[in-house]
């Protein structure tokens, strides 16, 4: 599996071990020309230019490194390169599923992702930021949630205002084995794309510029190992 580091803000280029690892298994692509125009959100014209500038992933398994969650909507452009049916497994402290006005935004990109024809389902794990709590839940992509296109698995139980339930939770926090079984049961395709926003992790395992969750890194890696053992991981990114 090849690693592509897309450097939008200069943070990746400052990491000497990453620079020294460049070669047959890792390539570094500067995207600094989009540092300001794509941070947090982008116009349709700019997003299209950025997507066309990305090193293509389709046809080869690749891990993409981007550096900052401010650019998480770039995942939409990466996943759009794939054509076969797939499930997206997203580890994130935020659902990123708000209804637009901005289609290409770090807080709305999952809304657009759920409407890609090749994406059969989006399974979101983490979700401790409060963005789905109480009446905030109804500000999200209710259509995709009610159709089963988006599955929400918070690491901690969350009270929500949904038509079918008063709270959402997952088993990952209390029983890792049962939690992994729960995740795998939501995946209906052979192909899986994994996206990891490090803000879902506890502060002891990662530091970000967004609200932190409480999930241990060991839980994330255990789920990924289970996915690798039973599914075809066609691509992945991390922020």
UniProtKB/TrEMBL annotation:
Coiled-coil regions listed in the entry: none
Gene Ontology molecular functions: metal ion binding
Domain of life: Eukaryota
A Pfam family: Arginase
UniProt record similarity statement: Belongs to the arginase family.
PANTHER family the record matches: ARGINASE (PTHR11358:SF41), ARGINASE/AGMATINASE (PTHR11358)
UniProt-recorded name of the protein: Arginase
Source species of the chain: Ricinus communis (Castor bean)
